[in-house]
Amino acid sequence: MAYSEEDLQKYLLKAQEVLNSKKENQLSETDLNEIVQDLGLDIEEIAQAREDYLTRGTTHLNFGNYAEAIGEFEQLLLLSPSHPKGLYGLAKAYLEKWKNHGKKADKEKALQYANQCIEVAPGYKAAYKVISTLKHKPTKKNSVGSQNNSRNAHHKKTTSLRTYLVPVMVFIVMAIGVFVGMKNVLNPPVKIQQYRVGATKDGLVIWQITSEKHRKQPYYRDIKLTIADATTKKVLREVAIPPRKGVRGNQLWRNCRQLGDSFYYIDGIKGIFVARHLRTGKVTNNKAMLAQSFKQFNGGVSKVKLQRTGWLEVTTKQGLRYWLNLESKKVLNQKQYNDLNRTKFDRVKRWWKVYKQGNNNESKVVLLEVQEHINGYRQKRLNSIWPVYLQKKLKSGRVKVVTPLDKASYFLKPKLVYGSDDLAVLRYKTEVGVNGKHRLACVDKAGNVLWDKGREETDNPLVVHLMDSHKPNVYFAQYKNTLGMSSLYIRVKEKRKYRNVKMAVGLDLTTGKLAWAYSPTFYKTKFEKQKSK
Fold it and tell me: What would be the CATH architecture of the domain defined by 192-342?
């Protein structure tokens, strides 16, 4: 609490003393302010005490502890006599006592406090409901005599019916319980929401994110993070992440990116920025740490966004915008970042086009290998190639015409799925038209094809997903010759229905075979917890 119990007791004793000396049965706000000034107390501390009394009183009322609730609300009214929630709380507590015991004194007090609440807050509808209940609902003492005859008659009619219904209802409840229990045994509820694969200096690790949603409002999600070694299946650490509300299970760590030795979860819309170590799960960066590490952010950080270039756009609480590179620790203002963004990066993208040139109603198909530098991360694609422009490209060496004899050495309409300094995984088509099928191939920097496979050569849904989807939305992490892949979910067709499967896969880049695979519904592989010594 922000206040001390000693100061609060002094305040309450003084308030009771002033109340006893007055003819009225309550203190005014002026009286209370004078007491605060006389005792030299802080008005904010008294306000905090009011909130605590209100919280405890409301909680006791919700759980049926009416005597305790009345005590808390009475203390609240000593601090603030005209508090509408405190007056209503007393009215509600006395109303429930009257319903249980039928005492006239409880009914009178409930009516008294409800009327006081309406005088203070005329729009408090709950207080009107209390008054309506007091006027129309008879007490238990009076209701026994007036309803005795009708109850006896009704009891005779329903006795025989209950004799038959009770066993039937018991049997139905037991049957439902057995069915639910068997269903949970045969198909246990899956709580795994996501997988993430990260690369460390000691190997690939897998983040398994599970959550459990509260059944009552505000519907928080308790989040648990299990970190395991992808190869050995040994659990490295289990971490409890602070609960979140208003989010779906598959959205918990969706905007997760690896930067250095940490996973960064960045949500610019909801204002979330936190980084956790890949192997320990400990927090390595957040807004507060960011403000302490760089003098430009000393005033505090308001928002953080991840740009496609890998830079972080940081907005301070003063409204200033900076761009931060976590690897180089550089902080640029808007002008410096724009100047850097205009320069050409040393990145080369290759794709192949079919070029058609009409001449006297005759067309000639020319296969081109195009190499284009990328400005930032924006790829400059060529929608059409004119003859003059084509000649310039041919002379510069950035475009070459492939003869029919050389055509077999090139992939048809390839798309880069994953690329590193040493190799690239490509998705390509076997032939032009609807009959063409997509395949995956891995090519090293010398142009050698390490492996080539299609749907008939693998049954892993994630690998098939890379072949079928133009934008697979898969996250990659490479350690030596193993490529770790994870996806939020993959649609797997079973008979006439589709099922969403969460999965993490390790692919051997030299052979194209699976090194390991994890999925709560598709595979039975599980993590192994380390035995405590």
Answer: Beta Barrel (2.40)
Q: Which amino acid appears at position 251 of this protein?
A: Q
The answer to whether residues 290 and 301 touch, using CB atoms and an 8 Å cutoff, is yes
- Greatest CA separation found in the chain? 113
* CATH 3.30.460.10 is held by the domain 5-141: no
**Token couple for 89:** 């709380």
DSSP, res 447: S
User: Dihedral (C-alpha) 338, 344, 345, 348: value to the nearest 10 degrees?
Assistant: 140
Query: Where exactly are the structural domains of the chain?
Result: 5-141, 146-185, 192-342, 345-410
Within 295-358, residue ranges assigned H as helices are: 334-342
User: Which residues, at least 6 apart from 212, have a Cβ–Cβ distance to it below 8 Å?
Assistant: 191, 221, 222
Grade residue 279 by pLDDT with cuts at 50, 70 and 90: very high
Burial (CB count within 10 angstroms: exposed 0-12, middle 13-18, buried 19+), residue 246: exposed
| pLDDT tens sequence across 496-511 | 777 788 899 999 999 9
Across the beta sheet with 514-518, what order do the strands follow? 475-479, 482-494, 497-508, 514-518
**Rounded to an integer, what distance in angstroms lies between the CA atom of residue 379 and that of residue 238?**
41
Q: Cα(232)–Cα(144) distance, rounded to whole angstroms?
A: 73
- How many CA atoms does the CB half-sphere of 402 hold within 13 Å? 19
What is the reported pLDDT for 198?
94
CA 167 to chain centre: 46
Using CA atoms, how far apart are residues 507 and 451, in angstroms rounded to an integer?
12
Tokens of 327: 């690897």
348's CB contacts (< 8 A; 6+ apart) are 371, 372, 373, 374
| CA–CA separation, 220 and 212 (whole Å) | 8
List all residues 6 or more positions away from 508 whose beta carbon is below 8 Å from its beta carbon.
481, 482, 483, 514, 515
Which residues neighbour 210 within 8 Å (Cβ) at sequence distance 6 or greater?
Answer: 191, 192, 193, 223, 224, 226
Query: For residues 350 and 369, is the Cβ–Cβ distance under 8 A?
Result: yes
Residue 380 CA from chain centroid, whole number: 35
HEC profile for 427-477? Answer: EEECCCCCCCCEEEEEEECCCCEEEEECHHHCCCHHHHHHHHCCCCCCEEE
Could you give the CA distance from residue 397 to residue 416 in angstroms, rounded to a whole number?
22
pLDDT digit string, tens, across residues 51-105: 888 888 899 888 888 988 998 888 888 777 788 888 999 999 999 998 888 888 8
